[in-house]
Amino acid sequence: MKRRIVEHSLLILLALVFTIGLTFASVELPRVFDAYIHNQFSFPDIATISSQHIEPDTYNESAFRTELFLRHYHFREIGYICLLLIIALIIAGFVTEKIGYTTAGAVALFLPVFGHFALTMFFLGGLGFLRLLWMPLLDISENLLRLGDIIVYPYQWILNGASFIGLNIWRELPYIFIGIGFLLFTMGTLTWFYGKIKKQPITDFWIYRFSRHPQYLGWIIWSYGVLFLPGSRIKKMFEISNTLPWLLATMVIIGVALVEELKLKRTHGKSYALYQKSVPFIFPLPGFVKKIFSLPTRLLFKKSFPGEKLEIVAVLCIFTIVIMGMSFANTRISEMRQHSQIPDTEYEISDYEYQFIYNSDRRTKYHAAMALVNAGKPSEEIFIRLLKSEDEVEREFSAQALGKLKSKKAIPPLTATLQDPNWRVRNTAIVALQGINPVAVKTELISAFNDENGSCRYHAARALEKIGTEDVIDVLVSGLQDEAQYVRVACVNSLAFISSAKTVPPLISALNQESADVRRAAVLALILKGSKDAIASLQLLHDDPDWEVRLYAAEAIKMLRH
Predict the structure, then answer these.
(1) Which of 47-51, 95-99, 252-256, 475-479 is predicted least confidently?
(2) Is the model more confident about 366 or about 407?
């Protein structure tokens, strides 16, 4: 008796130690590996998916650079091939019942998630390189990866429940899931080994009394926790959802477990059938929930559990499509709910106006301002009046709101705001005028290009692009000598979209600037210009000290020649 207690105690201790070690490894090793890759290799500052448009209104420099980077190293083709190989591996595993292949495919499908939570900032930086696997979906639309978003709700319910009793566990909860998942996986593995040592035909004791596949249950819970691990340096503009990959990987794992059931039933016959009736499949669920999940199988095949591989595939496809449909519907409902929150009565408008004026919190002021923007034309007078407020935050958000409203009535007061003592207010007014009618205030925007604040000069340069007259070109060319590097980059980008041959020589001369950022922007601008006159100068960049400049120049020469 004492010996059994000691054995079981050692097994439990081993499971706990192993679980803690694996939890630490699954969280820390990706960070360490990501940091190592960053230290060993250089990555371009690219944080968006590839762009298929290069028109002024849709052009995104970062996206265009991403596209050139992908083309140069043929990364898109690599991503497509890898995804096809994983799909082939999954299918081969199902067909041959070699479940190790299918399991490996499911894990590989989930691997890019590590590139999302690790300390990477860029699309392909560090472990972000793994996200190449999602390129086929990203090329269609990044929103496709949100077709599993409904699975986030259980996580949010737990957070809300904890918050209700005064606990804030949003940082800890992912690690709790990971730890629980690994604990279940470890306990399942130890139990399975112990059963083999005891030479039991069916492992039906310890944790196998609560789940017929505790290892797979552990993997599902562990991977669910990984979904929510915080990536502290991920750029907001590139928050691609991980939910669809998790959903697909989980469905594959469930399929693996179902195929295992077929093999075990063939091997052990009635004894395994009795075990099936007494122990839940993967998740211990209440009876009425089981009936809901078995509904497709009962409707299609007149049985509560799929008994053939084609039935397994059919049921999994149905559940996947239903969850994707629910996610899509949830997104649409959320959009409709936001639309329904637009203030449409005088009382609601005055309430938001009160919040905007009398609340000192900057975030609250902003949300109140955006709510008034949603009200449309009735809020114009409020913002025009508040451009003269003593509160600089009110003036800034009022200028921003008028820009969003595209109010032509606001052009004169916004033009006056270009003399505001606060640079944030002046900067916001420039952006607003750019969106309304920059031609009407060309003289004022040219004057704003001489503002003492670099951010104001930057946005003035982007506004002058919309005008595109000869005198504006001269101003932008003079800006190529600006003391601020990012202003020079803005001038290069603006010259790229002004339809005049006069812009090509200064862009070629910008290839010789000391700043690598300016040289990169100049190469991209010359691609957009499509001028073959630039090829000779671009060829001289073959030995440029900056590897990105060399990469973009090589791609530019190819594109301009063809």
Answers:
(1) 47-51
(2) 366
Tell me how far apart the alpha carbons of residues 406 and 377 are, in angstroms, rounded to a whole number: 10
Looking at this protein, which amino acid is placed at residue 366? Answer: Y
Instruction: Measure Cα distances from 32 to 29, 226, 415 in Å.
Output: 5, 16, 51
Which residues lie below 8 Å from residue 192, measured CB to CB, with a gap of 6+? Answer: 203, 208, 215
pLDDT at 347 over 60: no
CA–CA distance, 492 with 496 (Å, rounded to integer): 6
Q: Are the CB atoms for 163 and 109 separated by under 8 Å?
A: no
Q: Is 514 helix (H, G, I), strand (E, B) or coil?
A: coil
Task: Find tokens 């530019």 and name the residue.
Answer: 556
Q: Which amino acid is at 143?
A: N
Nearest to 371 by CA among 383, 384, 386: 383
CA distances from 64 to 58, 303, 334 (A): 11, 53, 31
* 552 token code pair: 């973009």
Q: Read off the pLDDT band of 236 (50, 70, 90).
A: very low
* DSSP E strand boundaries for 214-299: none
8 A C-beta contact, residue 184 and residue 214: yes
Residue 46's pLDDT is 67
* DSSP code, position 255: H
Tally DSSP H helices, then E strands, for the chain.
28, 0
pTM above 0.70, yes or no: yes
Decide: 513 and 543 in contact? Cβ < 8 Å: no
Closest Cα partner for 56 from 428, 434, 414, 424?
434
Between CA 329 and CA 223 the distance in angstroms is: 25
The CB density around residue 78, as the number of other CB atoms within 10 Å, is: 15
Task: Tell me the CA distances in angstroms from 119 to 115, 135, 422, one per residue in order.
Answer: 8, 21, 36
Pick left, alpha or beta for residue 345 (phi over 0 → left; psi -120 to 50 → alpha; otherwise beta): beta
Tokens describing residue 339: 């639309």
Query: How many other CB atoms are there within 10 angstroms of residue 371's CB atom?
Result: 20
Task: Encode pLDDT of 73-93 as tens digits.
Answer: 898 899 999 999 999 999 999
Percent of the chain's residues with pLDDT above 90: 48
pLDDT recorded at residue 389: 92
Residue holding tokens 């839940």? Answer: 280
Q: How far apart are CA 356 and CA 225, in angstroms?
A: 39
